Amino acid sequence: MRMFRKITGVFLVLSLFLTGCWDRQELNDQAIILGWGMDLTEKGGYLATANIVLPLATKSDGQQSAGQDGHPGFLTESAYGKDNRDAAQNMQRKLSRVLFSGHRRNIFIGEKLAEKSIFPILDEYGRSPMVRPRANIFVVKGGTAQEAMSHAYQLETNPAIAVQKIQEKSGAPISRSLLDFFITANGTGCGVVPALSILPPDLSTDKKNGHGSPPQTTLGLAGAAIFTPQLKLAGYLDNDEFWARLWITNRLAFRKFTTLVNRVDAEKSGEKEGTDALSGATAGENVSVNVDSFKSRVTPFFDEGLPRFEILLEGRGFIEENDSPLNLSKSANVKKVEARMNQYLEAKVKKIVAKVQKEFKCDVFGFGDTIHRRYPYRWKKLAADWEAIFPNIDLDIKVKLDLTGTGITGESLLPTRNGGEQ
């Protein structure tokens, strides 16, 4: 019994020297960052901007709610610095809570910084354990990171959340653009990241009373930013072009396409203004399809040691809108739409690929990686000269779209159009 008491006493004494988690920080002592941006100053330094969650705008379950009294649910703070960490330290002087970047979802890069080079600021994003490798990184086309991050978005309480959701609704992969950038920048091609811009209203209206909600300036996707091997901005694939790269690389989730379709197949190009060069259809004879399944097959071949590629792009979807004279209750007419859409998409993809080859001269499609994986011995001979070889490689691109439905009706419920097929 005495031995038990002695042992108990020893443990009680030792417990006095034990401490808890000495470096813990309570939640109400943290300034949680959802977005982080970097801009280039006129003097060559950096301006960092943080998008911080406001405590009063956070529900008990951790989700953000609307701000109080109509105010946004986030705080935007900025500071100058020599790099990310130096700017964060200078920013901390203004905040009563410790900056916490473990929940940082999005990183914004101003266009001027992207044009000079993002090489000097990227190391922290791959080195710090507080940076999620599956975060998103965006280039602000025609603007600064600070401008984009300070812009309130009406449908979401935080613009950092808004751009991520917008990207998801565009059919692009989410929560991995930073990781993808590191992979492509270290591979055989060039880095590619999503681009966003600050968009004015398509049509301005005068607000005549306090109860209306006219269109306002907002954030929107602007396609994809292409970077050179030196991590300098080379240019953009706009919003009607970036999907082609995603399709070729098997990363496109869904997309809607609209093209002109005439009721006859062999219509020649008309001389009339407003006719479609491929089918001869006139404006107003549009058909829109929703494609929700994409697949690509890239096959390399070699002619006298130089590569060429056969690219088969496949998809499956259904017709969502038909403004053409075609009666879609007839399977032959659905096949006409299918053939026309294949023709349109094939020409579109070829044009986009040619733009990348001639303007950017940068392999953003992973063709070099394909050769590296399948023919490593051949790649050793091509790797050093790939930047010069890529702009001139021959590409045979085919599109095979399968339309499996026409909605809840085949023949339109509208009266028969002039020239329409019965």
Provide a short characterization of the protein structure.
It contains twelve helices and 13 strands.
Describe this structure in words.
This protein is α/β, with parallel strands linked by helices. The protein is built from 12 helices and 13 strands. The protein has helices spanning 2-15, 84-92, 111-116, 119-127, 145-149, 159-169, 177-185, 242-248, 331-360, 367-374, 376-382, 386-389; strands spanning 30-40, 46-53, 74-81, 98-100, 106-110, 136-140, 192-199, 218-227, 233-237, 255-260, 286-303, 306-322, 394-403. Strand 8 (218-227) and strand 9 form a beta hairpin. The radius of gyration is 28 Å and the shape is globular.
SSE arrangement:
Elements (H helix, E strand, L loop, with lengths): L1 H14 L14 E11 L5 E8 L20 E8 L2 H9 L5 E3 L5 E5 H6 L2 H9 L8 E5 L4 H5 L9 H11 L7 H9 L6 E8 L18 E10 L5 E5 L4 H7 L6 E6 L25 E18 L2 E17 L8 H30 L6 H8 L1 H7 L3 H4 L4 E10 L19
Helix pairs in contact: 10-11
